Amino acid sequence: MEKETKILLGIIGVIVAGMVGLFVVFNQGGSTATVDAGKLVREDNQKKGTGDIQLVEFGDYQCPSCAAAYPITERLLADFDGKLTFVYRNFPLESIHKNALSAAKYAEAAAKQGKFWEMHAKLFEAQNEWSGLGDPAAKFADYARALGMNVDQLKTDAALAAIADTIKRDVDDGSSLGVTGTPSFFVDGKPIAKSDYASLKTAIEAAQK
Questions:
Q1: pTM for the full predicted model
Q2: pLDDT value of position 32
């Protein structure tokens, strides 16, 4: 009887040790995993803010969840003024958002006239106006005109192969980093599971420590 008890206790000990080991492994992977910094942020990416902490978003201009996240990123930039740099990267989900790629091209083209962030804001704020159109180019031109841009130049730039290549690089980088949907956020190289204000704020505060 005593021998059976020892054997049983030994088996239980092995099982408990294995469970503890798995717990440690999974928790370490979830809390310390970072991604390839070279693919997360490129030198020529669109950046806003001057802080040391990086908040990176892979987004889609036609994605309703990304539109909902837009005011959150603006709020975070204000809350962490001087401490945060926001980096926006394109990840148009063309299979479900037929105008997403076109919107990304116009946003990147606007950058050539120093108006990326203005167009970025307008595309999200007016998403319901253009997302269902057969061809949103005329609406994008209206936005550009209201922002004081050269519309003809914008159209020319939006059609450039270099713009398409920039967006493809964003998508390729995002895919290699495990991005499958939008919005996808990273704080100092660590993926953040949720895109709500509280979750992102908590991650940023943790990065300050």
A1: 0.84
A2: 52
